[in-house]
Amino acid sequence: MLNSVKSKLLFTFLFLSFISLETLLAQTPKMYFSDTYIANRPFAKDPYVIFFKNKYWMYYTVPDELKKVLHIGIATSNDLNNWEKVGDIFGVKGSVEENGICAPSALIKDGVLHLFYQTYGNAKLDAICHAYSKNGLDFERDQTNPIFRPKISDWSCGRAIDAEVIAFKNQYFLYYATRDPSYKIQQQGVATASINSNFNRNSWSEIPNMPMLKPELDWELKCIEAASCIKKGRYLYMFYAGGYNNEPQQIGVAKSKDGIHWKRLSNDPFLKNGKKGTWNESESGHPNILKAENGKYYLFFQGNNDKGKTWYLSNVEIGWNKKGPFLKTE
Question: Which H or E element spans position 321?
Fold first, then answer.
């Protein structure tokens, strides 16, 4: 009798353990990357992935040892799921970057990788900077940094963060997020430059009659930021973050024919935060859309389940139909 009870208890324990392990494995995505090299805690935000020199490069935000000053981490991959950290880009002391840099984006022009990123820790004075590299690791700063911030106006306090630069309709569009004059509402603006631009400060012209997108839907709360764009057919599609971090931040999609006027594809988030108990319960935010070398499309994003004590990066595959992008399920 006693042996029978023990056997049942052992079976129950093993069964529950199997269920717990199965649940854990189901909750952990194929790509689950974070950085512990400097700050000694899992932390990686604001992913941007680009194919360069026959492999994928990911630039992302990471803090210093004291968890105060932000800089940019660099990792590489051959399969978009497994990543190896290969370097860091620190803010230059004695410059506008001294208090921190973060939120990178990138493009390739004439075989050179151009990185666009924001200063951090300067409140209303934060602005967009530019650097370039021939190997993906070593960057030379633009001598005119910061290259862009909007004029102080009735809609913007003059701050610019979360840059995205993309070629479209024979010019470059620089998308950025800014705060309103009360410093409460985060909204989107855009500037343009010639297709022959070298991206310096004199290259950019602000588009008037902004904001381009502002929070209007319930789930967007008081924030739209982190634009990531891709051309598909006649349209430019923008994946954007709605809500400040961990409110939760979630991801929406809009499309445009001219790069300036945008229409949301849905009143609901395209990618929601995870269910309770999952790795991205607190948010799925700061998107980056990529067309991979195999022709597939991936949406990279940040998430966590502890209100921002840790941060991880992951991706999901998306497909396209007549209505636009959709999440693919395995």
Answer: strand 312-321
